[in-house]
Amino acid sequence: METKKLQNTNFEAELSSALKSAGYIFPTTDKEAEYFLEQSEDIDVPDKYKTCNFIFDESDRALDIIKGTHVDNQKAKQNWAIAARHGRNIPQDILDKMKHDKDNSPKK
Amino acid sequence: MIVDSGEINKFSDGELMATIRESRDRDKILTMKAISILYERYHSKLLCLCNKVCGGMSEADLVFESTWKKVYKYPTFDPQKTNTKFFTWLSKIAKNEWYSLKEKCLLNYNGIIEDYQDSVIEEKVQEVTLPLTRNPLITALQHIKENLSEKDWDILLRHFEFNAINGKHLPKYILEELKIKYHTTSAAIRQAKGRALEKAKQIARLNV
Question: Could you tell me if B58 lies within 8 Å of chain A, comparing CB atoms?
Fold first, then answer.
């Protein structure tokens, strides 16, 4: 039983090391990394990674993408305004007041 | 530190990292030059590794970018102290960045498991390494991959990537991800791993 367990352990450790050397999982020893560097082929690097300029950009793109989710909600906001008026158009006296306020607002 | 621009190209990885550490608050141009040389040496290999490990290009891109940002922000690599080579150190950072990305992803799932954080931290530090001369199993990997279903291969890789071998369990956030991906249960994931491992062993016996 113990022997079988030991054999399993060795096999799993050896398989783990082989997977790391072949780059299926991240290498964690120099030997694995060296083997990976030797045998891996050069790939076509996309233009965005031809230079390292992105390193100096301080935003956390990962977090932005995961959060997901900046959605431009202008259209929905318009709908909220319509809903607040119960679907009715803006009355003429309100429109006149808005225009009056706008004309009389201090210019920047 | 006064460094000739031709001279810096000949610096070792450790010397370049030392340059980044020493000049980052005083000489931005020198710092950028040093990191761009390191980038030139290793970016293609790291991107290749990230693509292979992370599967999806978008995840690979995120891990690749955040790894280099970490190198710039925390240039702690010192070959004398860490007793390791630069690419190994880089690979370990990438691995941690991927773990961290997976954790952040979990935060976005509905119905997050309550105690995931403890298990993540506990599992994260465990390592399985084996002194390797020329591991004969490397030649069998392609056969193993070809003979397993895509799902079983994926599950097997996740177990090895997250050190859930030799009796240890997958971090819960990875288990959750696999359950969602394959519409299945934790028990089925564990069974698939056992099945894949047994099959891998048989194939290895025939091919090594």
Answer: yes
pLDDT digits (tens, 9 = 90+) for B15-39: 999 999 999 888 889 999 999 999 9
Residue range(s) defining the domain that contains residue A91: 74-104
Q: Is A33 inside any structural domain?
A: no
Which tens digits make up the pLDDT trace of A42-78? Answer: 888 999 999 999 998 876 665 555 555 444 445 545 5
When divided into structural domains, chain A yields a total of 1
Q: Categorize the per-residue pLDDT at A101 as very low, low, confident or very high, splitting at 50, 70 and 90.
A: confident
**In-domain check, residue A37:** no
Which pLDDT tens digit goes with each residue over B112-141?
333 333 333 334 434 444 444 467 788 889
**Residue B121 within a domain:** no
Measured between CA atoms, how close is B37 to chain A, in angstroms?
A: 10
Identify whether residues B144 and B184 lie together within a single domain.
yes
Q: Is residue A67 part of a domain?
A: no
Report yes or no on A1 lying in a domain: no
Q: Residues B131, A31: contact at Cβ < 8 Å? A: yes
Give the pair of three-digit tokens for residue B172.
Answer: 């819960």
Cross-chain Cβ contact B62/A67 below 8 Å: no
Question: For residue A28, which residues of chain B lie inside 8 Å, CB to CB?
Answer: 88, 91-92, 95, 127, 129
What ipTM is given for this predicted complex?
Answer: 0.80
Same domain, B57 and B1: yes
Residues B141 and B179 in one domain: yes
